[in-house]
Amino acid sequence: MSGKTNIRGNRLETEIERSREESNWKKVIELAEHLKARNQPGLETLANFLIGEGKLESYLEENPPTESNVQRARTGLADARKYLMMCIGEPAKKTTTGDHESGTGHDSPPQVTLDPVHATAGHRRPSWGITGHHRLSLSSTNHHWLPWITTGLHRSPHASIDHHRPLQFITDPVNNSQQLAAEHRWPHLWNETLRTRKSSIHVIDLLEVSLDALLLLSKLEYAVGDYEGALAHLTAAGLDQLTEKTLPTRSLRIVAESYAIKGLCSERVPLPNNSKYQRAEKSEKMIRCFELAGDLTLLYLQEQDKLTSTPSTHSLQSLPAATTTGSTSPLPPSGLENKKIGVILETALQRAPILYMKAGQLDKAITRYRSMLAAVESTATQHLRLTLARQLAEVLLRGCSEHTYQPPTQGGKHLDERSKSSSSLKSGESPWKPQNYSGTNLFVPRNINEEIILLLLISEAMAVREAVLSQSPEFKNARVHAFDNATAVYDLLCISLARRKQFKILIEVFERAMKFSHEESHVWQQFGLALACGRKDARALLVLQEVHRLLPAQPHYCLLAARLCFQQLAKIDEGLEWVEKAIKCCEERMSFLSARCYLYQGMGLMLSANHDQRHSNSHTLRAKALESLTRAQQLDSSDHLVEFYLALLYAQNFHLVEAMHHVKLALYLRSDHPHSLHLLILLISAQKDYEEALELCEAALKEYPDDLHLMYVRASLEEAVFGGEVALLTARRMLTLWQKLYKEQLSSDTTDSQSYHHTNHDTYSIFNMSDKDAAPNPAESSAPTSMGIVFSEVVSLNLRLLSPTIPLDTNPEKLGPRPQLTLDSPPHPPTASVHAESVAASRVEQALSEVASSLSSYQPKPGPHQAWLLQIQIWLLTAQLYIKTDQLSEAAHCIQEASSIFPMSHHIMFMKGLLHEKKNEFHEAQTCYQNALAINPYHLKSLRHLGVVYHFLGRERLAEKTLADAIKVDPNDHYSWETMGEALTSLGQLDSASNCLQRAIDIEAKSPILPFTSVPFCYE
Fold first, then answer.
1. Is 71 inside a domain boundary?
2. Count of structural domains within the chain
3. Residue 92 is assigned to a structural domain of this protein
4. Is residue 527 a contact partner of residue 540, using CB atoms and an 8 Å limit?
5. Contacts of 37 by beta carbon, 8 Å cutoff, 6+ apart
6. Is the pTM here over 0.90, yes or no?
7. 203 found inside a domain
8. Per the domain annotation, does 445 fall within a domain?
9. Residue 941's domain spans which residues?
10. By mean pLDDT, which of 507-511, 578-582, 819-823, 975-979 is the weakest?
11. Which of 31, 357, 950, 967 is the most exposed place for a label (fewest CB within 10 A)?
């Protein structure tokens, strides 16, 4: 019978312990009721403790201990308070309520000296409490528990005991050992008690139950808002004098919460004397409490994972899986993890570094963050690690510079070291320390950039993993909470990655965020900006369309979309539509961006006029552009861009006085604007004062030594002033500068970051400087990325151009009024072809057959194509200068270098024709010019020189027609008018020839060294 009782008791004991560790409080209460129903002496106190603990914890799981729940907790925790108070005895109650008086009267037990170390030395006693490892045996039938349980035992078995400090203890009345206890130390009392009654070994167990009850009562007082009462219970329990030792899982949590509650209550309870010393001492004690609570919490959660057989490192190993996309919609977290850690412990984990920062000890705050992140991850800390990693990254971003940054120690041995002033722990391994990651393959950041980006990418991976995809209403709160956490990480990633121009990584991050960003405008905005900065222009435009749908009243995203259309995508009409949307938004809300909207409208109309071959339409568009720019000037007279574009518009119309006035205003508003300086140099050269223009150009280059636009102008001016040899030196310096500017970029970026595959590549390339020896524009360049794209676009371009020819009268008097403003534009969408259908078709066939051999071995250069196209233009400039100085072999080598980069350019074919023309190889030159025109029928210089070749070959009628086509492309090209006059003279049409030559003289008198269209468009 005794054996059955022992088995039944052990089974109940195991069941209670397992239920406590699993926080199954309903079952704990049921088992405690069964235990209480046995009516065995001594078990009633233990049952009361278990019932009180279960009621307290189950209530706080449903109603977290926050300020909003204080009033409700005062009534809801009455039963829990009653049961816990029954476990601590009257003297303890008096101590915790302040009514206890010292002395040895009849109502108080005598005092004895207690040494629990010796008490446990000769006997392995079981325990439920904090001061022991083992379980209390419930099978004994001889339990005679002491009638009084005091709070005197407030030290662990390993604590250093002051033997001269009496602790209150009520002796066993049955053995009448009061006199023995008064005369001897506790070991003698203990041995005597063992000899007299075996059940007395459980005195310490009752004291431990009392200790646990006091700690739980402090938690109860904190929940009801009695912070001073909570501190009184903790003081009575002797929390500060507990020595670190291995504890059961449940006891780890109780002690961790006790330290956390002490720190939280100390923050709320004011000091009696608010002196500087007391404030510093209080802050130090609070930090120590929070650090101990944090370490114990992490250790407790790690032990919990071991009990539930959950690998503690699975989350880190599964992080890569978070980057994959899936079609399923995971449900939000059930909240068990949050319940497992609790509000008190979660707050305590984050308070220590915050208090360090408030005290101005940023280095210790960073060390504390690293210490917590170095702990082996458990199931319940996955969400918390996201918060800690984000907070540490934010602290490093805001409060730490590269000079003050201290990297974490290799191996992590010292990551969790605290300052001597804030901790009294031993230097050795502490049983209250959580397990940290260790090994030889751990990555340790070497600088602040590595640590910030590493932290944020880890946080992003965890945020994506925790994202709630379900759009069901019942998951709204969880979805919003997870999205807010992810958004905070994305904001920090934008700051850190954009500083270092790592837009490719940023784009990948936002691509992963799209699956849970439905109707979330903030993420869509950032995604669009990242795509625009990463030169993914087509995708950026699509994303901005979604942003405008979500935020229809925000004009700046419309302007950004318009800029992409104008600058990169060659979608002028669509860009103007975006500008109209922006203007509508500004008019409805009286936005300060109205002036910039009209500026963009004027820019778009200028570009649209360039693309319209009909003079009447282009004249109308330019007039509208002038109206828009004037309106922008009225709205914002201090915008230098408005003055710059007004000057450019007047300059292209050859109204040089007005252009000079506005460009000076632009420089007055912003004296360091390089594009305005560029335009001013050309305006001075149009006055044929090349020396002054060269002097200004050299002064501008001193301010902007890396500006290839200005260097191109300088080479042209040096050729006019000093000759080609001096200009060649500048061209060579341009090649050296190109190597300096783009070598690192080409070596680091081996993949193209452009997205121009769908556009006409020459529309905004660096070669489209009016096709009249203009300067490069690297910011508006593009290039094909594969052979298939090259052929498909060339064929599609030329098939669109196969249309009947519109006759062009060569008499300038019959050409009608010249448009007020004429841009020397990039290739235009045709309204009519410049050659007959059969001629155009033969040119396409000739060009493709010649270039096919070159393309068969062509491999696109790695890196951004704009850099390679810029190098092509420099090689061609150098080749042209060599041709003018009769160094033909060097010119051929330069052309070959340019052809090796991209052989399909009509500029390279034109330069080959120019070389043949210089050698008087007119038939070969004719073929080259025709090939260039097959690719781009509106290439002005190819048309002009083809007419010259026809003239030299004696084909005057073909020369006349070709030159007429050139004049139609650009009526302000004096070279075309001059050559036309020579061709008409050969035909005997002297009157028409005289008119053409006179027109050439008039135009040349106002023409700059390079066309005004060589000034690139700018947006800043």
1. yes
2. 2
3. yes
4. no
5. none
6. no
7. yes
8. no
9. 778-1014
10. 819-823
11. 357
